[in-house]
């Protein structure tokens, strides 16, 4: 409608005036992803968002995603102004891994190499030897295992269990979960597969193990988009945040996409799987952030930044 297009016009103008670029995650609402694309920004997973922000010449980054993504951007490019549509956009994995408790957990496993998922606070990253995203978790752990490391993994227990299974590495796991992916249900998915025997099942590894077992492809958001394009099936059942359908449909426009079921009673819940924090990145909030960054700018303590930069740079420099 006309109000939405007025916001879009205003944001386009403000991005130019403020020398800013919009970096959006795949789980943001489709109109935000479209706006990032239309304005020379990017739509990506957290690893590529970090790379893009790092390499882009704009002096201000608007990070449409969740808090840890803004923090990562600030850690990597402290000279830039990093703004988020709202600093309230957090993540259940980050919330479920408080730095002090995590540090005590590390202290109780002194012989372990600490590998943390990108979905953590800067303070947790500062305590880690490695940061990984789901797109490189298996490769990094496989490499560390081959070098003889025992691994302490945090915070996502499902992703940790999946990585341990794939690599055979010796891993102790923090017991965190993503409130979105933890809701996918194996029983209902099995029933949905029976209704659509010709469909391929795509699952993000933050989902429970019994859901992952039913998958034809398991991977990070960018890996699932590639699998959607490359698999021969014309029908796809997808277990991850529904925001991903925007890029998935671009990657394979002819294919039919079905949301994997959440909730226990066998009912396919349409549009349940959407991160409430990703959903906070709306047009109004983006415009406000560009007009007045007060209370929306990301800062990271200098000492924390210096420590967190080490495992983050390992992640960015890792080539399997
Ligand atoms: O679930 C998330 O927040 C993901 C998949 C983040 C990422 O690595 O892009
Ligand atoms: Fe965190 Fe899950 Fe939301 Fe991703 S989808 S930001 S892991 S709560």
Automatic annotation (TrEMBL):
Transmembrane segments: none
Alphabetized UniProt keyword annotations: 4Fe-4S, Cytoplasm, Iron, Iron-sulfur, Metal-binding, Pyridine nucleotide biosynthesis, Transferase
Keyword Methyltransferase: no
Gene3D superfamilies: NadA-like
Main location: cytoplasm
Reaction equation(s) it catalyzes: iminosuccinate + dihydroxyacetone phosphate = quinolinate + phosphate + 2 H2O + H(+)
Residues where [4Fe-4S] cluster binds: 91, 178, 275
Binding residues annotated for iminosuccinate, in chain numbering: 25, 46, 117-119, 134, 204-206, 221
Keyword field contains Transferase: yes
Record GO terms (molecular function): 4 iron, 4 sulfur cluster binding; metal ion binding; quinolinate synthetase A activity
A GO cellular-component term linked to this record: cytosol
InterPro entries for this protein: NadA, NadA_sf, Quinolinate_synth_A_type1
Cofactors that this protein relies on: [4Fe-4S] cluster
EC identifiers of the protein: 2.5.1.72
Record's function text: Catalyzes the condensation of iminoaspartate with dihydroxyacetone phosphate to form quinolinate.
Family indicated by similarity: Belongs to the quinolinate synthase family. Type 1 subfamily.
PANTHER family reported in the protein's UniProt record: QUINOLINATE SYNTHASE, CHLOROPLASTIC, QUINOLINATE SYNTHETASE A
HAMAP family given in the database record: NadA_type1
Name of the featured protein: Quinolinate synthase
Source organism of this protein record: Alginatibacterium sediminis
């Amino acid at each position: 409608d006309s109000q939405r297009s007025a916001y879009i016009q205003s944001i386009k103008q403000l991005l130019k005036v403020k020398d800013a670029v919009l970096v959006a995650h795949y789980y943001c609402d489709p109109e935000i992803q479209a706006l990032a694309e239309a304005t020379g920004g990017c739509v990506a997973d957290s690893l590529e968002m970090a790379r893009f922000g790092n390499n882009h010449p704009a002096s201000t980054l608007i990070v449409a995603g969740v808090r840890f993504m803004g923090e990562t951007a600030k850690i990597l490019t402290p000279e830039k102004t990093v703004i988020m549509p709202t600093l309230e956009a957090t993540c259940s994995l980050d919330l479920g891994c408080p730095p002090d408790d995590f540090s005590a957990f590390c202290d109780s496993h002194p012989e372990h190499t600490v590998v943390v998922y990108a979905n953590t606070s800067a303070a947790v990253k500062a305590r880690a030897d490695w940061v990984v995203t789901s797109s490189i978790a298996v490769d990094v752990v496989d490499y560390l295992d081959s070098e003889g490391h025992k691994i302490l993994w945090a915070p996502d227990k499902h992703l940790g269990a999946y990585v341990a299974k794939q690599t055979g590495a010796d891993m102790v796991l923090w017991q965190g979960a993503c409130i979105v992916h933890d809701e996918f249900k194996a029983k209902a998915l099995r029933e949905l597969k029976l209704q659509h025997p010709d469909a391929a099942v795509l699952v993000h590894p933050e989902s429970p193990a019994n859901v992952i077992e039913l998958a034809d492809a398991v991977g990070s958001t960018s890996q699932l988009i590639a699998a959607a394009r490359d698999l021969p099936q014309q029908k796809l059942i997808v277990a991850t945040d529904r925001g991903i359908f925007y890029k998935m449909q671009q990657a394979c426009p002819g294919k039919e996409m079905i949301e994997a079921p959440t909730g226990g009673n066998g009912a396919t819940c349409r549009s349940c799987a959407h991160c409430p924090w990703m959903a906070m990145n709306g047009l109004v909030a983006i415009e406000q952030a560009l007009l007045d960054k007060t209370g929306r700018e990301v800062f990271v303590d200098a000492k924390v930044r210096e420590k967190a930069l080490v495992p983050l740079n390992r992640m960015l420099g890792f080539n399997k």
